[in-house]
Amino acid sequence: MSSLHCGNKIWVLIVIVLSINCLLSVSAATFGCTTGQSDDYRNVALQINRQYRTLLAQGKAPNKCGQLPTAKNYYEINWDCGLETSAKVQADNCAMAYSSTPGVGEILFMASAASAKDAVKNGYMKLVNTPVTNGADPDTYSNPNNDWNRIVNYRALYVGCASTLCSGMYKTVCHYDKPAYSNQNLYERGDNCVTDADCTTIIESTCKNGLCIAPPKPDETINTQCPLNPSMNDYARDQLVKWHNYYRALVIKGNEPAAGGRKAPKGKNMYKIKYSCTIEQNAQNYANNCPYPTHSAPGTRTGWGENMAYMSGGTIGENMGKSVGLYYSELLTPGMADLVTNVVSFPGDMGAGHYTQVVWGKTYEIGCGGKLCGTYWHLVCQYNVAGNYNGTTVYEVPITGGNGGCTTDADCTTQAADTCSVSDGLCNRA
Ligand SMILES: *[C@@H]1O[C@H](CO)[C@@H](O)[C@H](O)[C@H]1NC(C)=O
Known about the structure:
It is a single chain. The protein is of the alpha+beta class. The chain has 10 helices and 14 strands. It has a 4-stranded mixed beta sheet with strand order 1-3-4-2, sandwiched between helices. The longest helix is centred in the N-terminal third of the chain and has 23 residues, at about 5-25. The radius of gyration is 26 Å and the shape is elongated.
């Protein structure tokens, strides 16, 4: 088979697929950007990006012969008005040259077209077909396919484009939120996602048509729960409460994999965590010192427990959410010794100390603070009551054959007035 034949055949296929799907999804979104371009324009550019990534994930994007390999844990692109604005600045200068806009992946085309919308559409159609002519491989940046790398780069999750009429030709510039690096892969080969659990880069992602969809970007400027601390926000607090209770409700069911091929025991009388602004302020005061990895002196936290994390990139809310999962992963690695009576023993169980604090049954309140020190977040969470008392159960274990979690108020016995949150089997502290 000649490469020309192979390329032509598939080129026809991709044009058809893209056109049909674009027609169906036009006019879906309102973007709220202010450069003066139309939402119709944005929709065309965005849908081509999304359709192409869907084809790529599913192994249906054409290569010189055959298709490009399927993509694992591969994410849908969203529009970003800030990237549109920076692209517009470059489009408006009309020079046929790449800009040095820092930190973005830039694509550029100049061609005559009937409208701005046609210009961006035609430009993209040409780019996504360059692998058909030149051949491409996701394991390395592909010099012959230049701008194509930036479209498929798995690191990029946002795009914004602008097209400006420059003496009879449209100059189109699109900016992606992350550059494609010349010595690194463009995406990870592997099966495309089938379930939400296959989408692991961003928490709470879902899988649709083989592509991972990130949850809507939270507004991390909202700070109503503990307004005296400007370093935290409501999204970060909600993430902390949500993931602590998620893992607490999960572990007491008795099916969670633990080190050594074992499972964490079923649990009972486990408190549901609430958020405390008082504890948050204390944790924030300590986080402000950029203290990782040194814990605060116990006397400065009135007996509360403490977990700390150190993470780069992202926002405080994203990292607070992720940190709970990292703490919890100590159940599997390195694990704790006794999963029958569920009693901790130090120093032997020290390696799972974050895990044991996250699921410590008698803990009912948390508060956390964080500070970006250089490029690393120093995150501090404090827990009332403290966990990790040597020789004490992490959480109570029901008698053999008993159920995990509460079903009635009578199952919540720490204080007489405690009640059962039936939906998750955790106990509300009165
Ligand atoms: C924890 O308790 C165990 C068992 O009683 C004991 O052997 C160990 O020395 C204690 N560890 C600490 C750090 O006190």
